[in-house]
Amino acid sequence: MASIINIFTVFLQPVVLTVALVYLYGAVGRWNQSDRTRSLTMGCVFGLGAMMSMAAPITLADGLIFDLRNLLVGMACALLGPLAGIVALAMGVTTRLLIGGQGAMLGVTAMCASAGMAIIWHHWVRRSQLPSDASLLVLGAMISAHIVVGVLLPSPVRAVFMTQLAPIILVANLISAWVVGRLIIRERYLRMEMSDLRLAAETDPLTNLLNRRSLIEVVERHQSSGKTTNGSVMLCFDVDRFKSINDIYGHLAGDQILQCISDRIKSCLRPADVFARLGGDEFVVLLPDVTQDTARIVAERCRAAICDQPFQVNQRSIPVSISMGATFSNEQSSFDKLLSAADVALYEAKADGRNCVALDQTFSTGSAPNMQAA
Question: pTM for the complete prediction?
Fold first, then answer.
């Protein structure tokens, strides 16, 4: 009876612990952080799991104990990437050396063997044409490579290890690798779906710029932060006589022109600037922490980038220009207030003959009220 309970414990412990680690993986994956930070975090989590397993091993027989260090280190290398695996391996090796004993070096060798085979799986087997279930079972078998280290055990212990413990370790690794692999794959798909849904909700599908809702959030977050040395400028522009372009060249050509406009404008902006499409041919740019002189230069550069060179669509050269309105603010202002002021300036630019930038009264005197191409 005790033997049956022991075997049940051997199989239950890895499954329970690794399932818990997978859900931690899912939680960490949803944090807004870089891939490198996530890898380091999960490497620490799996390394901590290996340390806990070594602190509370399962005794199978006199002189024979079982823990999950090789399994956890191997899965970190295979499923989370080399960076996470190296972190988990370093934590596991350090712990085993601190525990000490005659089998310390054998334990370290076994962990390194599992890690090495798991990295091989990560780089080659994972990308093979094998079905995912078969690939995960191969992973379990490769992680079990540390069993070979058992041949270095003293003769009496080696016989018991190979006949009693090695088969249990192999089966436990196969089951755990399959279970954990399936759960991690599921978590990755869920995270990708969430990312796709978030992207669809935040961006304009034609130009991949921010949409109106996302722009409102960015502007209000920027305005409420108060972290600015100068002020912020909102530029609002649309395409001159865009309806005529659609009528003459077709709506598909109009869409292509809008995409090209977004590309040209992006090339004129600073990394911190925010660019969005409100809808139709109307676009907005937020220039945070900018001087008025710099804002004038950026606005004129954007205007010139559109009109200086015709757009090539379906082997036809189409001249395009934009009209732009600009408003400056050095205090907290709502999105609606900024957009309304920039929109008024935009109508002034159209009234002044189009293909120009109109600055509203928020800009200091000393510059012309509008800037127009020569």
Answer: 0.67
Beta carbons of 40 and 87 less than 8 angstroms apart: yes
Distances in whole angstroms, Cα of residue 261 to Cα of each of 199, 200, 203, 254: 21, 21, 16, 10
Residue 67 structure tokens: 């823990």
Q: Which of 25, 78, 23, 76 shows the shortest CA–CA distance to 50?
A: 76
Which one-letter amino acid corresponds to residue 1?
M
Nearest to 324 by CA among 310, 338, 344, 340: 344
DSSP-derived secondary structure for 191-224: HHHHHHHHHHHHB-TTT--B-HHHHHHHHHHHHH
CA angle 309, 312, 318 (to 5 degrees): 70
Token pair listed for 347? 């109508």
Question: For residues 51 and 99, is the Cβ–Cβ distance under 8 A?
Answer: no
pLDDT band at 368 (very low <50, low <70, confident <90, very high): very low
- Per-residue model confidence as pLDDT tens digits over 320-349: 999 999 999 988 888 999 999 999 999 999
Beta strand 316-318 pairing with 322-329? unpaired
